[in-house]
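Kindly inspect this today.
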Amino acid sequence: MTYVRKAIITDVPQIMHVIEDARRSLAKLDVDQWQGVYPSAAVFEDDIAKGECYVLICDDMLAGVATLQTHPDPDYACLIEGAWALDEPYTTIHRLAIHSDFQGRHLADIFLSYLVSVSLVYGFNNVRMDTHRHNKRMQHIAAKHGFVYRGVIPNDEYVDFVRIAFEWNAPAGTAATTSCLSVEGWESC
């Protein structure tokens, strides 16, 4: 059975196992994303405390992790070399990783679809994400799911200093919910 659930604090060691595996996989591809201390256990503990961290379970094992941020991302206010298509509330997918032991099972597809669906249920018709400019695998997954390249987000936290930004907008007329859930950080829904 494969399913997604919200992460709990006792998941953090397994989450970090997935992240360490992702670091090794990225390094093998000469991608310097996540090659420092970020993302740390403290980052995931904070995501869990906010109720924004999700884990993908496959065959009773923690196979993946991602954060679905439901409040404005301050970094996304500074998009260069492009523009967001919509200026409305959005969710942001961060720190998506699948353990390499589960490669070939298209679990990233399942996970990403789930996160977009949760966004719609929460009343958001706009989903954003970003990745390292050399992380071609994540860029491919984003494009495969209809995320459109929107520009570059400058970043002083990483060796590369830029992230490639993507956005997905629900088709016109899509309304997963008629009333918006209370989501911290947005003035209106």
Remarks:
- The first strand starts at residue 2 and ends at 6.
- DSSP finds four helices and seven strands in the chain.
- The radius of gyration is 16 Å.
- Residues 2 and 58 are 4 Å apart (CA to CA).
